[in-house]
Amino acid sequence: MKREIYNQYKIEIVRMFRLKDGEILSKTKRRDIVDARNMLYYLCATRPMRVRDIQEYIKEDGHSIGHSSIVQGIKSMSDKVDNDKDYISIVKRIEGCVI
After folding, report:
1. pLDDT above 90 as % of the chain
2. Is the dihedral of CA 10, 15, 17, 22 positive or negative?
3. Could you tell me which InterPro entries the record lists for this protein (predicted)?
């Protein structure tokens, strides 16, 4: 069940950030892609999903990410959501698209 929610979040974030399918989990440090990836971590964590589960889903998608990188991404996005109304709006729209 949590895997399906992760997949739905990923699809909606890719669509909203106008990324290509595989870009969200790529190793790039391009700001738009990093923000999208951090948004994925943040939404999963607030669902709530354990960081270990998020890490496992990403591994199943053929990528690897460290536990601390996910935690840092969640913190980074949490700060943005707390301080930027645009991010609050994006979070609400994505959450509305997911069961």
Report:
1. 94
2. positive
3. Trp_repressor/repl_initiator (IPR010921)
